[in-house]
Amino acid sequence: MNLTLDELGCSYEDLKMVVSTGYGRKNINFAHKSVTEITCYAAGANYLAPNVRTVIDIGGQDSKVILIDGKGRVQNFVMNDKCAAGTGKFLEMLANTFNVKTGELGGLSEKAGSGKDFKLSSICAVFAESEMISLFSQGIAKEDIIHAAHQAVCERVVGMVSRVGQEEQVMFCGGVARNTGTVKVFEKLLKTSLILPENVDRVGALGAALAAKKA
Predict the structure, then answer these.
(1) Dihedral sign, CA of 30, 36, 41, 42?
(2) How confident is the model over 56-83, as pLDDT tens digits?
(3) Which residues contact 159 (CB under 8 A, 6 or more apart)?
(4) Do the beta carbons of residue 52 and residue 42 sit within 8 Å?
(5) With contact defined as beta carbons under 8 Å apart, do 67 and 58 qualify?
(6) To bridge 100 with a disulfide, which of 93, 104, 107, 122 should be the other Cys (CB 3.0-4.6 Å)?
(7) What are the angstrom distances between the C-alpha of 205 and each of 111, 161, 163, 186?
(8) Do residues 122 and 208 lie in contact, with contact meaning Cβ atoms separated by under 8 Å?
(9) Which CATH superfamily, name and number, covers 50-199?
């Protein structure tokens, strides 16, 4: 926090309100208020795009789908927070398996060839890694395997969308939203164009700021 304050040229005493969110929100002892990330993502998405009703967020540790109303209030949500499958961690493992950077995965997925329609039998981070290594040793192109992994991640999250109900318009945020491979697969599966905020990984932070403004 001190580094951020230094960059802004201010001190803690200059702050009227500090709102914490996310997994570690209860550990921020200097916060005046704590708000769940679900509430923050809903508010942030609504501020950026008032017509959005379905919010998909995929971060490093979890994925979530949130249904919101026209005022950014949560109507329903579902989270995948007990497993790496369907999260940025899974894609990180995928990148490590093929010794590429996570930022290269989207481009490689889009280069999938004629074998891109096969599916991984497991999206479990433990079993999928072994399966992908085996497929690669059998001569399957890494681009096809990477595409299959993207397909598996997106299908898992689309299943979550079906549980809360998909409504237009759909915003995709979180760090994984920078991955063009997931964006294209999602748009194909959901049959809609996704709204991508400029700072996809700061929607929750924006929601926290909005909560601070209201306090």
Answers:
(1) negative
(2) 999 888 899 999 999 999 999 999 866 7
(3) none
(4) no
(5) no
(6) 104
(7) 34, 23, 26, 24
(8) no
(9) ATPase, nucleotide binding domain (3.30.420.40)
Q: Is residue 161 scored above 90 in pLDDT?
A: yes
Q: Count the neighbouring beta carbons within 10 Å of the beta carbon of residue 130.
A: 12
Give CA–CA dist 21/27, Å, rounded: 10
Q: Which residues pair with 76 in a beta bridge?
A: 67
* CA 21 to chain CA centroid, nearest Å: 16
> Which pTM does this prediction carry?
0.89
User: What pLDDT was estimated at residue 114?
Assistant: 62
Look-up of token digits 């369907």: 86
pLDDT band at 190; cut points 50, 70, 90: very high
Which residues, in sequence order, are bridge partners of residue 172?
Answer: 56
> Do the strands 33-34 and 19-20 form a parallel or antiparallel pair, or are they unpaired?
parallel
